[in-house]
Amino acid sequence: AMRRRIVYNKRQSEIFYFMGLIMEFIRVTGENIEKEHICCAISNNNDVQVSSKKAWLNERFDDGLVFLKSSERGKCFIEYIPAEKAWNPITADGYMYIDCLWVAGSLKGHGYGADLLNACIKDSKSKGKTGLCILSSKKKKPFLADPKFLRYKGFTVCDEADNDIQLWHLPFRENVNKPEFKECAKHPRIEEKGYVLYYTNQCPFNAKYVPVAEAVAKGNNVPFRAVHLQSREDAQNAPTPITTYALFYNGEYLTNEQMNDKRFLKLLSK
Q: Mean pLDDT score of the chain, rounded to an integer?
């Protein structure tokens, strides 16, 4: 069987060759972020989704965050950070936490997701990390890693919250501590009534869809409060394992999926 071969060009980006297919992956840094597109929000820098995401990334690079993406315009990237610096309520000392691994559209089906994961593994091992960890779920949910893919790549579940959100890990050696959720996230529930949304700027779509939800709720006289987690400390002590977008209603966790006005109205009608 043919194996992928990795070479490096003058830009120090990684180029993968496989059966005639060529894919170049570029590492986004503070030096090139203004000229590089951000795969999860493909638009110009003046778009509020792009500007909010790039600002969030810029503030995380000093924490060791890595954003590796396809040179092609499309959703094909991996974002990871030392788990101690992750914006999630987890305990995973020594691990690397994957914020997001996303391949979509015409770029799916070529093995680029595996390429990105392998690049993350190689980088994490070179930095002396214990292993990788990432959020998923019992069944595939939007904006979370596919559990089937994780299982195929050797990940296993190491902790689970009451809302079926799971923490998966891939240790690099035997007999190491397993990552786990903090107690505040194991039982996602709050006391506040009405709709309460916890979110961060890690996901660029929030810059567009959080104001939409607020406007729809106000227009329908529905109690709604958005809690913008603006520090790592707040995110690491949030009452939900998912901090990018977590919607509660009357104390119960509902969903991590961003909604436009029509979808949110449909939810309200229920």
A: 90
Specify the DSSP class assigned to residue 191.
S
pTM: 0.90
Q: Which of 118, 86, 89, 88 is nearest to 101 (CA)?
A: 118
Beta strands in 63-220, from DSSP E residues, in sequence order: 66-70, 76-82, 90-91, 95-103, 131-137, 156-160, 165-171, 180-181, 195-199
**Cα-based distances in Å from 68 to 25, 59, 127, 195, 264:** 6, 16, 16, 35, 32
- Rounded to the nearest 5 percent, the helix, strand and coil shares of the chain are 30, 30, 40
**175-213 tens-digit pLDDT:** 999 999 999 999 999 999 999 999 999 999 999 999 999
Handedness of CA 141, 152, 60, 54 (dihedral sign): negative
Between 6 and 190, the higher pLDDT residue: 190
Query: Closest by alpha carbon to 234, among 89, 62, 53?
Result: 89
